[in-house]
Amino acid sequence: MAFKAAHSLFVILCAASMLTLCSANRGWSYGLNNTYQRPWGHKNESHNSNNTNDHDGPNKIIVGGSDHWRFGFNYSVWAFQNAPFYVNDVLVFKYDAPNDTVFPHSVYQLPNLWSYLRCDLSRAKMIANFVLKRWLPYYFACGEHGGLHCREGRMKFMVLPLLRRWHY
């Protein structure tokens, strides 16, 4: 029994490490003369279409881009496609006010990978906009309907912000 638990934890940690490595290396160039085209466009274009700043300082990033924070949007894929994120970047969560056709939403920071994987909000902290203050993994989810939006609505994602290289 203990072996199964240890094996499961090892697999989860390996998967999280692979995701982090893949996200961190997305901006590297390959081949001769840096001719590799990045998946998000030409190497001189901004890879993060949600970045509202045009300088080398912290970015203000709208989570989900023009889709904002809504049920049914895959935020894990969005985070992967918009990586890398950097220390001191600001995540902005925008969502419509609840009405007859729109469910209420919220944003929680989850304390660890296990809570993230299980959509366990019991020790989560409700947040609004969020500054990625340190180089550590951050886990976010919608906390509505006892975690249903997290589990079934794919309203969760994780990021590991990188340290920014300053150009002098």
TrEMBL record:
- Protein name from the UniProt record: Phytocyanin domain-containing protein
